């Protein structure tokens, strides 16, 4: 099938490559000429495991191409995916400006029946707005062209985006006609997974509900971790014991310094906004967001207490990205901690395998070290903020000799506490026994 993917961010670039790999002819569209040039040259503007290599192979094969010419892409396609950004506005609602612009342009170029598929995370009811925008543009041209609007949310994780796009655990298709259902089924033919057919509105809600539920699991554990510290219990042992129950599931029970990234915080706020608009307060989800906002501050308070004051102290930050395996620092807990540390008069040395450049640009006062050892050299305290595998393999006997004070705060419970103490560190995790 001929497919266009409009918007070439994480979701768009990954979707384009995955669909081309499935055997379709794919055109990725973006308004940014520079980005399109880069992509056509086989370079990704962000880091995502395996994606660049696959993209290069698909470009070479002629199965994938990128363009700024949306009208031409529309004319030559049977299915059009919308993967533009829907960032949060001040009130938590999703900004649909880019989406509307893309949809109206499609409407102006429509030349026969097409399926317009929304993969962008959008509030419930957006499918109907997309339909209205398209209809308006087509009517303006004095034409009557049939089309179908489908919601097919994406559940891919950054760092594992390609794997998730090629091997999804489920494919949710919200559609309202047999023709759309048949075409979407054909598009994904060959993917061995569960298909969930719903209305467009249900599909839109499934995406928000899924991310909000995962965020709820994390905030539940993060809040419980605070109680574990006061009751001589270990949150990771508790999580393990809970996770053996298949009704609970073992994933997303890791306590830490809060969830970040481009999805969870934004989607939780958007669902809360939708709830307020509809007069149905989601009190539980409200608390999920509050716990998450507090978590990094709660963690920093432990550092402040141990050091007496942060003023004049050298703090080493290990990890800056919102999770390992990505260069993305959007909504990363590190970005909440850095301004507070600087305002309190601390000096920060930091190291992250992928996130240094972006943080350095935002916070020129943060000293970017060449590796973890250099960041830890002379530090009064080390704060592990992202559980990059290379931090787990550090030579801690060497580290302890280079630090001014052997204080280690593990914001992800990534290291073995007993082992760290055996090196001589005063080691503190999140919600672990003996850290109160
Ligand atoms: C998420 C969803 O997983 C994905 O399905 C959706 O489409 C987009 O949002 P992503 O943002 O890439 O993906 O990250 P994810 O791996 O889900 O982690 C989100 C945040 O939660 C990270 O900051 C991570 O560190 C944190 N997290 C995750 C925890 O603190 N504890 C956990 O147990 C799991």
Question: What are the key terms here?
Answer:
436 residues, binds uridine-5'-diphosphate-xylopyranose, 6-stranded parallel sheet, Rossmann fold, 2 domains, 14 strands, alpha/beta, elongated, 18 helices
Write structural notes for this entry:
With 436 residues, the protein is α/β, with parallel strands linked by helices. The protein folds into two domains: 197 residues, NAD(P)-binding Rossmann-like Domain (Rossmann fold); 199 residues, 3-Layer(aba) Sandwich (Rossmann fold). The chain is 46% helix and 14% strand. It is built from 18 helices and 14 strands. The strands form three sheets. The chain has a six-stranded parallel sheet with strand order 3-2-1-4-5-6, with helices on both faces. It has a six-stranded parallel sheet with strand order 11-10-9-12-13-14, sandwiched between helices. The radius of gyration is 24 Å and the shape is elongated. Bound molecules: uridine-5'-diphosphate-xylopyranose. Uridine-5'-diphosphate-xylopyranose binds next to helix 9.
Number of helices: 18
| Average pLDDT, all residues | 96
CATH H-level superfamily of the largest domain: NAD(P)-binding Rossmann-like Domain
**What is the CATH topology of the largest domain?**
Rossmann fold
CATH class group of the largest domain: Alpha Beta
pLDDT < 50 stretches? none
Order of strands, widest sheet: 3-2-1-4-5-6
| Basic shape | elongated
Number of domains: 2
What's the count of strands?
14
Radius of gyration: 24 Å
Bound molecules: uridine-5'-diphosphate-xylopyranose
Distance between the termini: 59 Å
Any guess at the CATH architecture of the largest domain? 3-Layer(aba) Sandwich
Fraction of residues in helices? 40-55%
Main beta sheet: 6 strands, parallel
Structural class: alpha/beta
Q: Approximately how much beta-strand content do the residues carry?
A: 5-15%
């Amino acid at each position: 099938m001929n497919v266009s993917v409009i918007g070439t961010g994480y979701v768009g670039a990954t979707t384009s490559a995955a669909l081309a790999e499935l055997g379709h002819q794919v055109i990725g569209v973006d308004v940014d000429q520079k980005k399109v040039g880069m992509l056509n040259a086989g370079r990704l503007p962000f880091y995502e495991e395996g994606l660049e290599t696959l993209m290069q192979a698909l470009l070479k094969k002629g199965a994938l191409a990128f363009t700024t010419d949306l009208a031409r892409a529309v004319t030559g396609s049977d299915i059009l995916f919308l993967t533009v950004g829907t960032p949060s506005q001040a009130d938590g609602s999703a900004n649909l400006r880019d989406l509307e612009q893309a949809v109206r342009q499609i409407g102006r170029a429509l030349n026969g029946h097409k399926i317009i598929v929304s993969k962008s995370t959008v509030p419930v009811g957006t499918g109907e707005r997309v339909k209205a925008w398209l209809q308006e543009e087509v009517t303006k041209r004095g034409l009557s062209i049939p089309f179908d609007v489908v919601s097919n949310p994406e559940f891919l994780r950054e760092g594992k985006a390609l794997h998730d796009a090629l091997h999804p655990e489920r494919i949710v298709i919200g559609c309202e006609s047999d023709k759309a259902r048949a075409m979407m089924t054909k598009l994904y033919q060959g993917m061995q997974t569960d298909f969930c057919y719903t209305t467009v509105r249900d599909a839109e809600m499934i995406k928000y509900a899924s991310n909000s539920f995962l965020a709820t699991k994390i905030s539940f554990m993060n809040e419980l971790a605070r109680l574990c510290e006061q009751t001589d219990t270990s949150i990771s042992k508790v999580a393990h014991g809970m996770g053996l129950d298949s009704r609970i599931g073992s994933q997303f029970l890791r306590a830490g310094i809060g969830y970040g990234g481009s999805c969870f915080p934004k989607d939780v706020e958007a669902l809360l906004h939708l709830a307020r608009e509809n007069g149905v307060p989601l009190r539980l989800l409200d608390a999920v967001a509050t716990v998450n906002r507090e978590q990094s501050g709660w963690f920093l308070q432990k550092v402040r207490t141990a050091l007496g004051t942060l003023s004049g102290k050298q703090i080493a930050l290990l990890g800056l990205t919102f999770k390992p395996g990505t260069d993305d620092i959007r909504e990363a807990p590190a970005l909440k901690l850095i301004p507070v540390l600087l305002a309190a008069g601390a000096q920060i040395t930091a190291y992250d395998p992928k996130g240094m450049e972006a943080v350095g640009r935002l916070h020129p006062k943060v000293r970017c070290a060449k590796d973890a050892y250099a960041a830890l050299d002379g530090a009064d305290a080390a704060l592990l903020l992202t559980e990059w595998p290379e931090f787990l393999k550090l030579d801690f006997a060497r580290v302890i000799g280079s630090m001014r004070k052997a204080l280690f705060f593990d914001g992800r419970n990534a290291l073995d506490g007993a082992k760290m103490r055996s090196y001589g560190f005063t080691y503190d995790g999140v919600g672990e026994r003996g850290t109160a």
